Amino acid sequence: MKKNSYIGISFIVLLFGIWTVKELTERFKDSGLEKLGKVPTFELTDQNGKKVTNKDYQGKVFVVEFFFANCATICPKMNQNMLQLQEANYGNLDFGIASITIDPENDTAAALKEHATKLGVKHPNWHFLTGNYEYIMNLANKGFNIYAGKDEKAQGGFEHSGLFALIDKEGNIRCRKDNFGNPILYYDGLEQPGIDAIKEDIKLLLEE
Predict the structure, then answer these.
(1) Which pLDDT tens digit goes with each residue over 124-180?
(2) Residues comprising the binding site?
(3) Which CATH number is 31-206's, of 3.40.30.10, 3.90.800.10, 3.40.50.720, 3.30.2290.10?
């Protein structure tokens, strides 16, 4: 084989190697988002009567909220904002949502199915979850450290946070930092800047 042929082949191999390294780097790049720890384990029932656990979300980027269907204050806004996340990730089976009711006495699987239908839920990985009240309160307040509880003075009888939790494919709770370099912990589920931020970070985690 001629010298020029060796040079040509070597050049092609070098280019292939560079391309492969670049491709792998892009594919497995770190988003730079903070890791806050593992998502709490849970087992609940969705709107179709199916048992759903945190393991069902393994390999997916997903968002968690605590709400209740009869909420007339912040929940409608939260659900509408969650619809934005569904639209941005529609058709992507590596994305999911867990909407966990804090009023399981009224939010049965059947009631949640009706709620999901009225809301316009189409993504197959958006589960509306119900279960034992004490179990859910413990999951919210101690597992995620996202406040939820009964309050007779509150409209609807419950009080809760409007925050969204973001979890990566490995089951880690993730977040960005604020302007001072501090982890924000959770995302504002009520205001558009918070929704824009979580949209961006979902995309980053899907690319990890």
Answers:
(1) 999 999 999 999 999 999 999 999 998 888 787 899 999 999 999 999 999 999 999
(2) 71, 75, 160
(3) 3.40.30.10
Torsion angle, CA of 54/59/63/66, rounded to 10 degrees? -10
Residue spans of beta strands (DSSP E) within the chain: 34-38, 43-45, 51-53, 61-67, 95-101, 126-129, 148-150, 158-160, 163-167, 172-175, 187-188
Tell me the whole-structure pTM to 2 decimals: 0.85
Domain layout of the chain by residue ranges: 1-30, 31-206
- Residue ranges for the known binding site for Cu cation are 71, 75, 160
